[in-house]
Amino acid sequence: MKVITAVPMVDLGAQYRRIKPAVDAAIARVVESGQFIKGEDCALFEAEFAAWCGAAGAVGVANGTDALTLAMKAFGVGPEDEVVTVSNTFIATGEAILLNAARPVFVDVDPDTFTMDPTLLEAAITEQTKLIVPVHLYGHPADMTAIMAVAKRHGIPVLEDAAQAHGAEVGGRRAGTLGDAACFSFYPGKNLGAYGDAGMVVSNDGDFMARLRQLANHGSGKAKYEHLVAGTNSRLDTLQAAVLRVKLASLDEWNRERRERVTAYSRALADIPSVERPSEAPGVTSAWHLYTIRLPRRDALQERLAGLGVATAVHYPRPIHLQPAMALSGGKPGDLPVSERLSGEVLSLPLYPELPFEAIEEIAAEVRSFRAAG
Ligand SMILES: Cc1ncc(COP(=O)(O)O)c(C=O)c1O
Description:
39% of the residues lie in helices and 13% in strands. The chain is an alpha/beta fold. Strands 1-9-8-5 form a 4-stranded mixed β-sheet, with helices on both faces. It has a 3-stranded parallel β-sheet with strand order 3-2-4, covered by helices on one side. A 3-stranded antiparallel β-sheet has the order 7-6-10, with no helix packed on it. The chain is globular, with a radius of gyration of 21 Å. Residues 63-65, 68, 89-90, 92-93, 135, 161, 163-164, 185, 187, 197, 199 line the site of pyridoxal-5'-phosphate (PLP).
């Protein structure tokens, strides 16, 4: 294969060149103002992002991990509690549970969507269950209709881990409005990425948001140096908010461009024996954060593509119930067969709005010849 140039997983430089004047002006405006903490861009971005999701409100925080950790705390998660989530996710989902001194309870994922299998949820719920945290992995929403039905039956709130799902939809409603609250990450490579770390919690519940804002700002009350609860410093950085406001204006367009590339990949990868392409469940719109195929001898393909200058990634090589950090969950090999199998078979191909279609054709041709060779 002759790839025109090396293909990265994401190309943030290419994105910057499309919006450079607006980004540069926004950064300069914040620097000139000297309002680096809680500047006006923070409140404006919170309102604009909440509106973009279709939610009533949003609270900006320092990163997606803090969004999860603080949202769980605002739901009252603490020692002795259990939080039901998935193992087929980034470590942060489980880490946030441990940081609240609660116990993660992992359920397996659906083999088609790679997200929480709602048919396994009921059996995971106990008297100690305080919260359910589905993850919209790779931008594909979990089966929120089924998950919310089980949660409602048990009176347990649901927190969406929407870190990878800016703009994903179920039945026309966006991630961020599908549960009781949702957490987003603006890690640079996300569909909406900052120039550093940033995160957001979105919800329609005003009291919950007030608790969250207090926790993220030293437990502060109304008066200066009045601290009502033990909180932390996890505010959204004003410079990041200013950059994110500029980028939000292009997010619908970028998500459309991602989808066009996904269509091109899926067409080019059609009918290759033993290569499973990602797809959308009925009624669902993925945000297509990642284009992740599933195949045997995954590592060999990854090596071959790397040799040609094509970056790929494995999301994730070890399900988190088998990570040493999650020992408290008591997880052991064999507990979650689908998650464990996926970790050996998934491979994410380069995907970003500026990805040249020629690169997609060439990568797909290489996958085809790899499989043809056995
Ligand atoms: C599913 C998921 N949850 C949580 C996070 C944590 O977000 P952050 O990296 O902003 O802390 C990430 C992102 O990296 C993620 O992919």
